[in-house]
Amino acid sequence: MVAVFTWLVWAAARGLPGSVGRLLTWRPVVYLGTISYGLYVYHLLLMHVWVTILIYLGLPRSLGVGPVRLLLLFLLTVALATLSWYLIERPINRMKSRFPYVAGDGKAGRDLPSRSAPGREMPVP
Predict the structure, then answer these.
(1) Helix residue spans in 15-117 (DSSP H)
(2) Stretch 34-47: mean pLDDT, rounded?
(3) Three-state DSSP state, 66
(4) pLDDT score recorded for residue 58
(5) Considering the domain boundaries, does residue 51 fall inside one?
(6) How many other CB atoms sit within 10 Å of the CB of residue 35?
(7) Looking at the domain assignment, is residue 29 inside a domain?
């Protein structure tokens, strides 16, 4: 599965033709990509909350499985990820312009003093 999804991401970054390409550019799928970090962060939390609520209400855990639970948790996760996007992530992303990115030359830390004993500095390759 890792190889398939790696290929899919690689191919999508270059543009996929046909029905797969149209699916990946469909607005709902693009939106899920926009809020995907929130989906990733909150999905396990909501599953845990679901089971905790079932236990608290004294309901059997078997109520916590199946397509209804899947749909409900998906919708709740999308709602929470949407709130997170608009209230937390997007405002932070908008602050990026205040902190310009300066590409380094790959020599970061070379001007720092050595941590070895005095007189025994290690050469930097």
Answers:
(1) 18-24, 27-34, 36-56, 67-84, 90-94
(2) 94
(3) coil
(4) 86
(5) yes
(6) 22
(7) no
**Residue 122 and residue 114: Cα distance in Å, rounded?**
7
List the structure tokens of 56. 């608290």
- Which tokens go with 80? 């929470």
In this prediction, residues 44-53 reach a mean pLDDT of 90
Question: What residues contact residue 116 under an 8 Å CB cut-off, 6+ apart?
Answer: 122
pLDDT at residue 109 is higher than 60:
no
Tell the residue number behind the tokens 């050469």, with chain if given.
123
Counting Cα atoms < 13 Å in the Cβ hemisphere of 98 gives 5
Greater confidence (65 vs 85) lies with 85
Residue 52, in any domain of the structure: yes
- Sign for the CA dihedral angle at 78, 81, 82, 83 comes to positive
Please report whether residue 8 resides in a domain: no
Q: Indicate the pLDDT class of residue 10, thresholds 50, 70 and 90.
A: confident
Q: Are 36 and 80 in contact (CB under 8 A)?
A: no
